[in-house]
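agent> step 3/5: call structure_predict on target 'Citramalate synthase' (Desulfobotulus alkaliphilus).
agent> reason: downstream docking stage needs a structural representation; sequence fetched in step 2, passing through unchanged.
tool.input:
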Amino acid sequence: MTIKAVTMTSMLLYDTTLRDGAQGEHINFSAEDKMKIALRLDDMGFHYIEGGWPGANPKDTAFFEAARSITFKNAKLAAFGSTCRPGMKPGDDPLLKALAASEAPVVTLFGKTWDLHIERIMENTLEENLRMIRESVAWFVSLGREVIYDAEHFFDGYKDNRDYALETLAAAWEGGAEVLTLCDTNGGTLPHEIEAIMEDVKGWFADRPFGDQRPLKLGIHAHNDSNLAVANSITAVRSGAVMVQGTINGYGERCGNADLTSIIPVMQLKMNIDCMGQERLARIKSLSRFVSETANVPPLNSRPFVGKSAFAHKGGAHVSAVLKEPRGYEHMTPELVGNERRVIMSDYSGKSNVTYKAKEMGIDLEGVDSREVVSEIKRLEQEGYQFEAAEGSFRLLVERMAGRFKPRFQLKNFRVTVEKDKDRHCSSHAIVHIDTPFGEEMSAASGDGPVSALDNALRKALECFYPRDMAHMQLVDYKVRVLDGAGGTGSKVRVLIESRDPDTIWSTIGVSEDIIEASWQALADSFHYKLGSSEI
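tool.output (status=ok):
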């Protein structure tokens, strides 16, 4: 009996962030982190969540133990592991017994499909490898588990030895695997190769007699070493794959995995393949940020669909066109993936940028010539300012030019000292003297460096007059860039400060040949922005 490949108008989403994504450099999830992400993925409607390799390390074992008490609403939890070892029965292999003990309803087994690995690296025989695949899959099926077979290095194995690579798939299928996932483990396969090979796989299975009537289900797991993981995944879907494996934000070893935050919107919005529904899709940017924060990896601004810059417009002509017809410069509506359109202020800006940005920030431009604002922005950017990264300072600039800026404090003077004793670390102290509508205040404070001391002293002075605002505001990032190193230690520097309160994040900027002066400019703007926003 021949079998036919399944084609679907919906797609099975298999997330492997907790296992394959955790292999990325600088990513180290705790068992608690994994559970938080798993629950978020379940809420988003993912069909499969790969939790890790129980038995391979204590962290993954602890995760699966904790997962036993969790009822997932949408997802099936998958335990990942290898086929049994050469010369060993599955039921005797400690690693396979650990997979079974995890009680995960789904077991994802990877097996070797490339004769290079089998004979030269594992020093095994091709025949024994087929037995290991067939019997390992069959053993888990006999235990009542759903088995997904990951054909490791499938495309490379196919290119070297087509017939044997296909036989490994047949062994997994005969063992009872539910899905055969074709893996581009080295990430070197091109889209047209994916298409041709998948068509051959389907044709080969259709021409081969099998003893059951199960429809063939193929999946794809692409790595990004050639920057083609998303393209290869989409190609595989067009070629009949019914399951896509990947990670949130494309996290993973070397260059990463296929990024599900791109694949899902492409399938849902551009291919009309149902993945998770529109309501959940509108939360995919939030999911991306959540995983990024949990992994302690800064979000990539240029990440398609969910990045901060995905729908950002800088050139004046572009902004003018977007104001008239967004489709002219945007391939989709940002809100569909939970993102938003942004207009960036820079020396490329035109009148339309200022008009749009002012409207976005709730700034009344009545009585302000937007061309003068553009001219001033371009002049300041010649000096080294960069308002695209400092929207808080941009707001203050427009308010000053409009004559609407009401300073909540003015600097009278400050003094910063840094002391270094022979056997002690540096110590920094600052004294700040300010004038406010409620009177003068002088405060002193120390800190971890001169900028920290200045921040603490200013905050201490302002707390006397604005205690509630100061309690909710904190500095969260501080960056310094030398604008022209030719001047050596006297070079002009740009300081960017990012601050936040429970509701908002804002950035401010300062530029000077003196790093303390530049830091004060950015710091003062940050406090002015907060105190001004509190009255809006």
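agent> step 4/5: record observation. The first helix runs from residue 31 to 43.
agent> proceeding.
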